[in-house]
Structure formats: structure tokens, C-alpha cells
Amino acid sequence: MRARDIFNEAREARIRIDDLQERSLVMRERIGMRGRSVESVFTQVLDPMRKVDDLIDWESEEYHAMMAASMAAIEDAEDLARGLAGMGYADAARALRLYYVNAMDLSEVCRKVGHGTELVKLMLDTALRFIDENGIARVKEAGR
Asked: How far apart are CA 57 and CA 53, in angstroms?
């Protein structure tokens, strides 16, 4: 696996985590809004605990499995960024973290690191190439 693949996976994982947390929040809000029996138009009484049960089922199964897989991908990228910083490339490591691990837009990354778009793109590409050329294991080891 190449560095770009690891960081792209981390970016997708961050987006997935944000989506999972948003989904959980929406489910919790629905419980708060509809946590009592309400008669529907068809005179059928709705089960107030159904939404609670759905949330518990979802969080106990899907949510935790997906979160664990996503966090593992993020930790892998974080290890590389720490290693890159440990090798003296802290600015590049920061740009990698912001863009990939935090899933920020490129314009946000540029503002945070204080460089223009072209320079940030160059930093990201150069950092990924540097990691591949030096070996993933070696770069990770530099961060320990």
C-alpha cells in the first residue's frame, strides 16, 4: 500500500465518522421529539420505544464496528504524519493531517498553514512521495 492510499483511506474514514456521528445525533433528536405515544391518522398507536430500540441496535452493532475500522485508518495516517514530523518535516505533516486526517477543504488547509494552493498541493504530493521513497515502516518508526 502506498502513502497516498493510506491518507485517502483516512480522509474517507474521517468523513464516515462525521456522517456516523451526525446520523446518531439525528436518531437521538428524533427520540427526544417523539418519545411519547402519538396516535397516527390511521388511529394506530405508535410505539414510543421503537426509536430507542432502533438506536440501541444500530449503535451496538453497526456504529461501533464502523467507528473502529475508521479510527484504525485514521491512526495509521496519524502514525505516518508523526513520523514525518519526527524526520523534520513538521509543516508537511501538518498539511497532511489537516487535509487528509481532518478532511478539511484545500482552501481551509491553505489558510491554516499560511501558504497558497499550489504550494500546499506541492507539499502534500512531496510528502506522500517522500514517505513512499523512505518506506512506510521507517517513517512510522521516526514518530515513536
From this structure: 6
Domain range for residue 128?
A: 3-142
Give CA–CA dist 140/78, Å, rounded. Answer: 9
Instruction: Please list the residues that pair with 45 across neighbouring strands.
Output: 39
Averaged over 120-132, what is the pLDDT?
Answer: 96
The count of domains in the chain is 1
pLDDT for 20-58, tens place per residue? 778 777 777 766 644 444 444 444 445 667 766 666 766
- 3-state SS track over the chain: CCHHHHHHHHHHHHHHHHHHHHHHHHHHHHHHHCCCCCECCCCCECCCCHHHHHHHHHHHHHHHHHHHHHHHHHHHHHHHHHHHHHCCCHHHHHHHHHHHHCCCCHHHHHHHHCCCHHHHHHHHHHHHHHHHHHCHHHHHHHCC
To the nearest 10 degrees (0 to 180), the angle between helices 3-33 and 64-86 is 140
